[in-house]
Amino acid sequence: MSTLTLALRDSSTMLRRNLLHARRYPSLTLNLLLTPVMLLLLFVYILGDTMSAGIDGGTPDRSAYIAYVVPGLLLMTIGSTTIGTAVSVSNDMTEGIIARFRTMAIHRPSVLVGHVLGSVLQCVTSVVLVGAVALATGFRSTHATALEWLAAFALLVLFATALTWIAVGMGLASPNAEAASNSAMPLILLPLLSSAFTPVHSMPGWFQPIAQYQPFTPAIETLRGLLLGTGIGNNAWLAVAWCVGLTVLGYLWSTARFNTDPK
């Protein structure tokens, strides 16, 4: 059997394993999914008129604010879902199954690849569910063409891949599941410090660089432009650069930690 065939076979096996774990223990995924859903309902039905009035210069328009806030919440959904990946990887490392895998004749990177593929699929599913809730609350994307929808989906998958590799590294570097969950919390907090809920220019001057120079803001602005027909500018290139950089960083970090034999 060739190396490529072995890698594909073992990676698909590990993918099935992780999907079975997610199906048998859905509580973690559901709990993480509740965060963006609850924020969506909070900002739409309780704060929608007030927030939209602040953005539009005093004119309350809840439907306009729904359109504004949904792209950020979709990316926040990816961040919250990948926390489950960090916890899952940490559990594998601490419960002994990885030590068992090390003694078996399997393609070694397939263990991580299975986690990454499974997490990306869960992220896409979570985004679809949150998107369905957004549609139910009144979100509409009437200006997006089929090509723009395809580009938006590609961006979501690319962003999910990048955050998943970072989450895998966090899980490998954590001594237990609780530490993995805590170390991955910035994946939920960073969207709150971005342009997800309010424009960057409306923030205090000292805080604007924090919101501007981070991975979520250019990705949110790109997704917002694709779905709503607003300007994108350089945000698309910045978003792709962030995704590629985080993917490479997460991959190198994860493989280095995974290939280090336990003492």
Provide the fold topology.
Elements: H1 3-24, H2 27-46, H3 48-55, H4 62-94, H5 97-102, H6 110-136, H7 146-173, H8 177-183, H9 186-192, H10 208-212, H11 216-228, H12 235-258
Helix pairs in contact: 1-6, 2-3, 2-4, 2-6, 3-4, 4-6, 4-7, 4-8, 4-9, 4-11, 6-7, 7-8, 7-11, 7-12, 11-12
Defining key terms:
76% helix, mainly alpha, 263 residues, elongated
Explain how this protein is built:
- With 263 residues, the chain is mainly alpha-helical.
- The chain is 76% helix and 0% strand.
- It contains twelve helices and no strands.
- The chain has helices at residues 3-24, 27-46, 48-55, 62-94, 97-102, 110-136, 146-173, 177-183, 186-192, 208-212, 216-228, 235-258.
- Helix 4 (62-94) runs antiparallel to helix 9 (186-192).
- The longest helix is centred in the first third of the chain and has 33 residues, at 62-94.
**Tally of DSSP β-strands:** 0
* Number of alpha- plus pi-helical segments: 12
**Binned strand content:** under 5%
Oligomeric composition of the shown chains: single chain
Shape descriptor: elongated
Span of the ends, CA to CA: 32 Å
Helix residue percentage: over 70%
How would you characterize the largest beta sheet? none
Classification by helices and strands:
mainly alpha
Low-confidence stretches: none
Short summary of the structure?
With 263 residues, this protein is mostly helical. Helix content is 76%, strand content 0%. It starts with a helix and ends in a 5-residue tail after the last helix.
